[in-house]
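Input/output pair, single chain:
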Amino acid sequence: MVIGCCILRFSAEWVTSLKEKRMVVKSLVEKTKHKFNISAAEVDSQDVHQTIVIGIACVSNDAVHANQMIDTVVDFMEYSTDAVLENTDTQIIRV
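Output:
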């Protein structure tokens, strides 16, 4: 079993409140979950209104496939929001 996981850090300079941030995060996470068979959630900086940190994870039987899935999801998320993708940290774990 192979687990692919990635933490994406976005900057949303136009966001002025936590309520507005939560709307952006919810929309992005739901669109991603709907399009891909992955898990996604906000994992850090929940109280910082201009920083969005989302974690995604997938399970596969092949490391190459898991890495391709993560790359595809990262590309989708980057182009599905006005927030700027600042950093990604991807790990492929063999169990």
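Helices lie at 18-35, 63-79. The radius of gyration is 13 Å.
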